[in-house]
Each structure stands twice: as structure tokens, then as C-alpha cells.
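Hey, quick one: can you model this chain's 3D structure?
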Amino acid sequence: MDVKQLRAFLTISETNNITKAAAMLNIVQPAVSRQIHLLEEELGVELFERGRHGMTLTQEGKVLEGYARRALREIEAAKMELTSKDGGLKGTVNIGILASLSELLSVALMRVIKKKYPDVNLKISVGYSGHLKEWLEAGEIDLALLYDSIPSKFIDSHQIVSEQLWLIGPYSSDLHQSLPLDLNEISELPLILPYVPHQLRSLIDHGFQVEKLDLKIAAEINDLNVQKQLVKEGLGFTILPLVSVKNDLQLKTVKVSPINHSEFYRKIAIALPNTRHISKLVHVIASETYNCCKVAVDTKAWLGSTWISDR
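Sure thing. Here's the predicted structure for all 311 residues.
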């Protein structure tokens, strides 16, 4: 199994056509066919189903696809790190960010990276904490800013921020930023929440279970924007960190109240994989991410947050 074979394999998987793949790879079609034949022979499985309408991955091919993409990314990262003779940072880093933090941090981080490291291509993947952990473990992203709840033996994480959770309601509601609510009051309200196994939902469920209270669920939606829109339309309330409704507060489309309970806090961490080599470039971007978070907390841009890192 070599790099040429893996590139041929991935190009065919993307085009579903060996002729198009050969053109994209700038080699003749028989050479591409030969590389796939050798790869299948070595692995002892068929990677593609050949049909009148092209080539599609078999189940075995789908398994190899993820490994192949990660392998080529690692090779390209190594090449970039070793061949950068002038000491300048070059290459691509894919960082995962929680949906609730993406508006706050994506632009700030991109601005810093483009100014200080113009040859670095920063990719930002937005997702929920569980997805970010899966992507990080699988090698699909290089580092992540996520909700640090369930430990992973494949990830090293460092807690940096504590966020209070707030009750979010429509602007027509009686919520007030200076009037905390107890859980027994919130239990009477229709709630629009993400569904299990979303980590924020698990935290909310646990808090209510501690007080032996039931949730009054109006809707379960794993989409932050839809969740907020339903609240604005007056269809219920939700529970979120304050930063996720920063713009909505400025536009006066929601009202908020703090939750009077010690369980309703979450810790945000910077996470890196511990199962593969971390390049100098990824370490630098992780450091810049850390600094951006610190600035956001210090300047009060990160609403409802407290800096907890001792680095």
C-alpha cells in the first residue's frame, strides 16, 4: 500500500469514474486501474462495485476511505513541516468549535491567523461536543474547543473557561437578567432542548434529577439556530450559555434569567489527540486559540464566562 494507490483510490471514490480520476491525477487510465488492482490484491477485498453507471465503494471500501484520508493528511502535514526551510508556518489546520461559540471565536481567530501566519489555511468545523470528540479521535480535525464532560483516553484536554447556563425566553416573557430562577420554577415552563446524547442535554437532565424534578419538554431539536428561533416565536424556553444569544440580546429578540443552581455550569476545554504526532503548526494554532479565548473572556465579549486556566 503506497501513497499513489491511496490517492488513486480516493480520487475514484470522489468521481465514481476511473476515466475522470485518471484525468484528475494526470496519468493514464490503465495505470490507475493497476494501482487499484494492486491495492485490492494486497488487502484481499474488493474496494469498488463496478457497474454501468460507474464505480461505487463497497462496505470494505468505505472502511478504507476514512483511513486513507487521514493517512494522506498526516503525510502532507509531515511534508509541510519538514520542507519549510525559511521557518515560516505553512499548511492546513482544521479546528473544531462548539456551535454556541462559533460566532464569538471564528472571526477573531481567523483574523489573528491571517495576520500572523498568512500561509496557514485555517479550516473551522462547527459541531456539538460529541461530534467534535469523534472527529478529533478519528483524525478529521486537528484540535477542538469543546465541552469537557466525558473523559477520553484518546484525547488530552485542558479546561480554560467556565460558563454559566441561563434560561432563554422570548422577548415577551417576564425573564430578567438580574432575577435568578430556581429549578422548580423552570420545571413549569415548556422547554425546547437538544435531545440525548447531546452533552448539554445530559447536564440539564442531571441537574433536574438532582432536585427530583421533571422536565416539561415542548420540543427536542439538535440545531442551535432552530432552537433559538422557536424560542423567539414564543413556542417555549431553552437553556443555553449566555454567549450563544449575544446577538439576540442586542437585537432584543430574547430575554434571559440566570439559573439558581450549582449544577448549571459547563467547562470549555482545548483538546488535542494523544494518539498521533502533533505538528509544530497545530501547537501554534492551539496556542493562538487559547489566547483568543482569554481575550474574549477578559474583554467581556464572552458573556457569562469565567477564566479558570492556570496554564
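One thing worth noting: The first helix runs from residue 3 to 15.
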